[in-house]
C-alpha cells in the first residue's frame, strides 16, 4: 500500500482516531461475503470495496458515481493504486463500471439472493444422499 500524498494531520482526525470512540452509528448494510473475502483481498482492495459499499448500499443504491480522485480521497490511496485496484476488482467480478464519462459510474455485483435455492428434497450438502420423497 502506498500512503496518500497528503497525510491527515493529527488535529483533523476523526473523533474515533483521537481516542473518543465512534459516534452513535447509522448503518450501512454490508454483504457478509465481503467479510469472508478479507483474507484473500489486499489492503487497497478492502479499502475500495468498503468505500464502494458505503457509496452504494449506504445510500440504498445499486450504483454510485465516483471518480479516481473521489476514491483517492476516500481511501487515502494514490491514483495509480486506485486505478490498478479497480482493474483487479473488475477482473474478479466484484464491481462493474457501467459508465466511464463524464464521471465513472460503478455497480457492486450483487446477486438477487445469496441463499442457494434448493428444490424440495434436494440435499444442502452434495455429499449427503438425497432425501426420500414423501409422496
Describe what this molecule looks like in 3D.
- With 135 residues, the chain is α+β, with helices and mostly antiparallel strands.
- The chain has a domain at 42-110: Winged helix-like DNA-binding domain superfamily/Winged helix DNA-binding domain (Arc Repressor Mutant, subunit A, Orthogonal Bundle).
- Helix content is 30%, strand content 9%.
- A three-stranded antiparallel sheet has the order 1-3-2.
- Residues 121-131 have low confidence and may be disordered.
Question: What topology emerges from the helices and strands here?
Answer:
Blueprint (H helix, E strand, L loop, with lengths): L31 H6 L5 H14 L6 E3 L2 H8 L3 H13 L3 E5 L5 E4 L27
Antiparallel strand pairs: 1-3, 2-3
Question: In angstroms, what separates the terminal alpha carbons?
Answer: 59 Å
Described by the principal axes of the CA atoms, the overall outline is globular
CATH class of the domain at 42-110: Mainly Alpha
Rg over C-alpha atoms, rounded to the nearest angstrom: 20 Å
Number of strands: 3
Element pattern in H and E? HHEHHEE
Uncertain segments are 121-131
- Portion of residues in beta strands equals 5-15%
Number of helices: 4
What can be said about the biggest beta sheet?
3 strands, antiparallel
What would the average pLDDT be, to the nearest integer? 78
CATH superfamily of the domain at 42-110: Winged helix-like DNA-binding domain superfamily/Winged helix DNA-binding domain
CATH topology of the domain at 42-110: Arc Repressor Mutant, subunit A
Structural class: alpha+beta
| Widest sheet: strand ordering | 1-3-2
Amino acid at each position: 500500500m502506498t500512503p496518500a500524498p497528503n497525510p491527515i494531520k493529527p488535529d483533523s482526525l476523526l473523533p474515533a482516531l483521537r481516542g473518543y470512540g465512534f459516534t452513535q452509528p447509522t448503518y450501512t448494510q454490508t454483504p457478509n461475503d465481503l467479510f469472508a473475502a478479507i483474507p484473500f483481498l489486499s489492503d487497497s482492495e478492502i479499502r475500495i470495496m468498503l468505500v464502494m459499499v458505503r457509496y452504494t448500499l449506504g445510500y440504498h443504491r445499486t450504483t454510485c458515481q465516483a471518480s479516481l480522485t473521489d476514491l483517492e480521497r476516500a481511501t487515502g490511496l494514490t491514483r495509480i493504486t486506485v486505478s490498478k485496484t479497480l482493474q483487479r476488482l473488475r477482473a474478479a467480478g466484484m464491481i462493474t463500471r457501467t459508465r466511464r464519462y463524464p464521471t465513472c459510474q460503478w455497480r457492486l455485483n450483487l446477486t438477487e439472493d445469496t441463499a442457494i435455492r434448493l428444490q424440495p428434497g434436494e440435499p444442502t450438502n452434495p455429499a449427503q444422499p438425497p432425501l426420500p420423497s414423501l409422496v
